[in-house]
Design a protein that fits this description.
This protein is of the alpha/beta class and about 375 residues long. α3 links the parallel β1 and β2.
Amino acid sequence: MNNPAKYLPRFLGATALVILIAVVLNFFVDPLQLFRPARLFAAMYSQDSRLQGAGLIRSQQFDTVFMGTSLGIHYRQSDIDRALGVRSLKLALPGSTSKEQKFVLDSALERRPRRILWQMDDWIFRDAPDVDKDIYLPVDLYRRNARGIASYLFSGAMARESLWILARSIPPLEPVVAKLTTGVLFKFPIANVDDINALHPRFDVAGFYNQKSTLAAFRRITAPVQSPHLAEGYDYDALVRRFENDAIGLISANPGIKFDIYFPPYSILQFVAMRDASPATLKIVYDFSAYAVPRLLQFPNVRLYDFRAAKEITHDFNNYGDVIHHSPSVDLKVLAMLAAGKYLVDRAAPTASLDRLKAQVEAYRVEGSEQ
């Protein structure tokens, strides 16, 4: 009779060999560029900004960090560089909280950038679990601790990515492998860092960002069944607590870093929706702004821009895909306004921009009136 036990050493040996090959492959190819910038193998990038950010911080050269939410995810680093005369690193995280943003910015600050460009809004300061409980943010990769390095090197999924990147780096195979590389099959399908989460040139911008979509979103969020969601995450005390810990804490700890902070140009309909369907939420937004703006301007290393009352953008619903998310053309307008110092909040009149927003929201009528 066969003795299964005699095959156990062979099985264990084969398993150890496969694991060793995966570790060696992941270390030398380093698909995330966590240990070194790509030189021997083609640099490839992931659309998963929470994962990719850990590698970008270590592999890229930059003097400016761009942080934001989904409102900043489609910016191109080359556009930021051209408009502002910087060398930027985009670390925007869709749906992120201030806890996540502060954690990632703390990691980026280890590389000693001179400037932080921060797309900030009230919603990021909602209460959220600590980053160590965040299943979507690979905190140990950012920390580069033993657990993070081990999970990276021993990952079979990363070994598959490494093998694919290795194959793509062989000139005769590159055209075929490039055609087969998609975001569905592989985590690292992007060959140019500037293309990370940027809209594809063939994306139907006009078909997605238009007045019809914006008004439909407005009707949807103000419908009785949906309107309670407008209040989600809006607790004034929680917003202030997180703001003080995450934003003010980071700024005060880095007096030598310039912080250019801007409030993004939500469409006017976001605030009108609150006005009509959740007025208590709108009051929290106003009260939080009245607190946060003067607080930020106490710091000499902060410049604050408030685009929420930029009527030429916020009242043109062809700029939006819903009541918040704006088109790539607005990305460029925002960068141009930052470069020109437009909508810069005056330290001597910190609530003036908020007063303009209040007046616009109060006066606005969705249908049948002149704006």
